[in-house]
Design brief:
Blueprint: E1 24-27, E2 30-33, E3 81-84, E4 88-92, E5 117-126, E6 141-146, H1 173-179, E7 181-184, E8 192-202, E9 208-219, H2 243-246, H3 254-257, H4 272-275
Parallel strand pairs: 3-9
Antiparallel strand pairs: 1-2, 1-4, 4-7, 5-6, 5-8, 8-9
Length: 276
């Protein structure tokens, strides 16, 4: 497997307040270094857009699409990762040591002691290279999601029995982060330039959103594109009254302990063969 050297840090998921994000990618078998958030923007070359590990606390945030970092990015990257339609993109939340010791995250251990994390993956198509689009506009569509499972995942405590949304083992986050987050680019997707947007949503103590974006160049002979009903924009895809957003901060309340379903926020997942 060809490799572009890793450069990055850590995701620490904590019971009440989290920080972290994607530090590296494996895209169609090739490893790519992410954009290291604590180092200056200048001099970093990556398919990933600049980001910051602290959460975004509102669904209305102007940089909800791709984060933009701290301090804010002044330019957009020009590098695109080639990926065949039908191939996998893996997002990694674990880093090697930071090349500048004073910027190393002080707590590099992964913590998954709290529940209520969901992953959603969106793609945003472009007519030209990604550095010509800042992520705004109604172009995004969802290709994958994972969250609450009332009866548990294989091997979870009391698998098969109903547990409310306050039960940490009914959420997928712990298992998935340790193994990397894998998503398959739809096999019949039309070739072109796309942003892939990974997002972690934490609803445990309050609403916390963690988006990151990377730039892809998809190849293949497919012709599938989503219809208008699948397209959303950020901000705008989520509303405060959406069930999956409204429940934030109430997980351990009487409401949470009596809730046995969770509606993922945003549009439904686009499955090409189902929408054609």
């Amino acid at each position: 497997m060809k490799s572009i050297p890793f450069l990055a840090a850590v995701l620490a998921i904590k019971p009440v307040y989290s920080h972290g994000g994607i530090y590296n990618y494996t895209i169609d078998g090739i490893d790519y270094a992410g954009h290291y958030p604590w180092l200056p923007e200048e001099g970093q070359v990556s398919v990933q857009r600049r980001w910051w590990p602290d959460p975004i606390f509102t669904e209305k945030h102007p940089y909800l699409a791709c984060n933009r970092g701290n301090p804010l990015a002044t330019t957009l990257p020009t590098l695109h990762a080639p990926v065949r339609a039908g191939a996998q993109v893996t997002a990694w939340y674990f880093p090697p040591p930071c090349p500048v010791p004073e910027y190393q995250d002080p707590d590099p251990a992964m913590r998954c002691s709290g529940p209520e994390y969901q992953w959603v993956h969106h793609l945003g198509p472009l007519l030209g290279p990604c550095d010509q689009w800042d992520g705004h506009g109604k172009r995004w569509f969802k290709i994958w999601e994972a969250g609450y499972n009332a009866t548990g995942r294989p091997g979870s405590w009391k698998e098969g029995e109903l547990s409310d949304i306050a039960s940490s083992d009914r959420w997928w986050h712990a298992e998935m982060v340790h193994k990397g987050i894998n998503v398959t680019i739809p096999k019949t997707l039309k070739a072109g330039h796309y942003l892939i947007r990974h997002e972690v949503i934490n609803i445990e103590a309050n609403l916390q959103l963690y988006p990151e974006c990377a730039q892809l160049e998809v190849s293949g002979d497919g012709s599938s594109v989503p219809g208008e009903e699948y397209l959303v924009e950020f901000p705008g895809a989520y509303k405060a009254e959406d069930p999956g957003i409204w429940i934030a901060g109430q997980v351990y309340s009487q409401v949470g302990h009596s809730t046995y379903n969770y509606t993922m926020p945003g549009p439904k997942v686009w499955v090409p063969e189902e929408s054609n």
